[in-house]
Specification:
The chain folds into 3 domains: 7-77, no CATH class; 81-189, Tetrahydropterin Synthase, Chain A, CATH 3.30.479.30; 197-234. It is 56% helix and 27% strand. The chain is of the alpha+beta class.
């Protein structure tokens, strides 16, 4: 009789534990359904809705609902970004070697969100490397090669505009990004060329200074002639009187 009573007690104890575990599991499932069925997309993002890993739709900013466990949301950044390319080796029209630092300002095209995810998983750097970098190296070098070194420095604004257009045209067939601008931020020429430019500028300054000196001397000479003429006229007038 004692043994029978003990077995009955154990069964009741484990039954209570089992019931508690069942309630806990049910509560966890309910919470996962509750919190896993809604999500938000920020104004600076777009959502890519996936069902069992397959693309369903692009989701606009706001509060949305999804099927827990079966659906997931990948978020794509739609903000404007600036990417800088350091030391792009180029040659000017007069064969001067230069290292260019170029920045490209862009954002994901609104109608290419799904493609941005399917091809690059939303990875900006991977997309830049695949889509922008090859064309940037080629197109900007071609444009820079149409400028002499001196004009590249003096007409930087026009150079930037000329560089932006062919880069935009080059990715027109694959418009994952919208390019907002291209800036050649710095042009580093060789030390020999810099010295030659400095020497040329110093020579020009010397010439300008000499021209100013000659102009001043001419003015002084003209003044002296005018004064001498005035004195001669005055003496002649007195003699006539």
């Amino acid at each position: 009789m004692a043994q029978g009573a003990s077995g009955s007690g154990d069964t009741g104890y484990f039954g209570k534990i089992g019931g508690s575990l069942g309630l806990a599991v049910a509560a966890l499932i309910a919470l996962s359904i509750l919190f896993g069925s809604w999500y938000t997309v920020d104004q600076t993002q777009r959502g890519v809705r996936l069902r069992n890993g397959a693309f369903v739709e692009v989701v606009q900013p706001g509060l949305h609902f999804k099927i827990p466990w079966f659906e997931s949301i990948a978020k794509i950044d739609m903000q404007t970004h600036n990417f800088t390319f350091e030391k792009v080796n180029s040659y000017s029209a007069d064969q001067q070697p230069a290292d260019l630092r170029i920045s490209v300002t862009l954002h994901v095209s609104a109608d290419k969100v799904a493609e941005m995810y399917s091809r690059f998983g939303g990875d900006f750097q991977a997309a830049i490397t695949r889509v922008i970098t090859p064309h940037m190296n080629q197109e900007v070098k071609v444009v820079f090669g149409q400028y002499t070194a001196a004009r590249a420095i003096s007409a930087r604004g026009q150079l930037n505009a000329d560089a932006a257009k062919p880069l935009t045209d080059a990715i027109a067939y694959d418009p994952v990004f919208t390019i907002e601008g291209v800036q050649i931020e710095d042009i580093s020429f060789s030390a020999d060329y810099i010295r030659s430019v400095e020497a040329h500028m110093q020579a020009e300054v010397a010439v300008q200074q000499r021209q100013q000196e000659l102009a001043q001397e001419k003015i002084k000479a003209d003044i002296a002639v005018t004064q001498a003429t005035g004195r001669a006229n005055s003496v002649r007038a007195e003699a006539q009187a």
